[in-house]
Design a protein that fits this description.
Spore Coat Polysaccharide Biosynthesis Protein SpsA, Chain A; alpha+beta; 6 helices; about 30% strand; 16 strands; globular; single chain
Length: about 270
């Protein structure tokens, strides 16, 4: 764990800012926004933590446990932030997330990030809290830019992009959690945390009669768990960000070939 950036011991909120890595592959601009550009340091302190693993769910859970254990050991950790190594937010992105989280009284807030192709589909979606396999519909940038800059499931229902009873499925590429809330350490009858990261897979026949793999990703599963706990999940484009692949894909404008997710439940 890398030492505190900021006042340290000031009694201010303290954010564990985490970067999960596969190997040591990280975009240099993402690293810059992780180590230097996330905050001006005038509202909270930051502790940096990286974790390297090819087991994605376990890697995220290790980072989550670092935050929870840091809080329980009296180290003052109040929030967990995460930035993936291929996501490049603009400077002071963590200040923006913290400001929106505080303003809204939210439990979690994520930056809307496009996938790495020309469709303009994002990894922020709408789904059902009690059914991992019922088709989730991803939001497109064209839809997102018709919404408020920061939005929740109520805004999506009002815009006709979600149904009552559905929940917002956030992504973990660039997000912030308030782990002071009761759901953060709530356990079931076995003593297991009710909110954690896990990837679910299955194989079943598709509409064409052929066997096909399906996956419920760790970020959407975590969002469903938050929804079942009554936690408030929000998403924002107030943080300008790029998703780096063979080129960079930005969330700053309503670009893309698709108006809506034409592959809901198929990918």
């Amino acid at each position: 764990m890398i030492p505190i950036l900021g006042g340290g011991g000031s009694g201010r909120p303290k954010i564990l800012m985490a970067q999960p890595l596969y190997g040591w592959a990280v975009h240099p601009f993402s690293a810059a926004q992780f180590y230097r550009g996330a905050t001006a340091g005038d509202r909270f302190d930051v502790v940096l933590k990286t974790e390297t693993s090819s087991a994605l769910g376990k890697c995220f859970n290790q980072l989550y446990c670092h935050a929870l254990n840091g809080r329980e050991r009296g180290q003052g950790i109040s929030h967990l932030a995460m930035l993936h190594g291929d996501v490049i937010p603009y400077p002071r992105w963590l200040d923006t997330h913290y400001g929106e989280l505080t303003r809204l009284g939210a439990d979690a807030i994520c930056t809307v990030i496009p996938l790495k192709d020309r469709r303009g589909v994002t990894s922020t979606a709408v789904g059902w809290p009690d059914d991992d396999w019922k088709a989730a519909r991803r939001l497109t940038l064209k839809q997102v830019h018709r919404l408020p800059e920061t939005f929740c499931i109520r805004d999506l229902i009002e815009a006709g992009l979600a149904e009552p009873g559905q929940c917002l499925l956030g992504n973990t590429g660039c997000w912030l959690l308030d782990i002071r809330k009761p759901w953060a350490t709530g356990t079931d009858e076995r003593g297991d945390l009710r909110c954690f990261f896990t990837i679910r897979d299955r194989i079943r026949r598709g509409p064409d009669g052929l066997w096909a793999p399906q996956m419920a990703p760790e970020d959407w599963n975590f969002s469903r768990m938050l929804a079942r706990e009554g936690a408030a999940v929000w998403a924002t484009r107030k943080v300008a960000a790029q998703h780096a692949g063979h080129q960079v894909f930005s969330n700053e404008s309503p670009w893309g070939e698709w108006e809506e997710d034409l592959a809901a439940g198929q990918e």
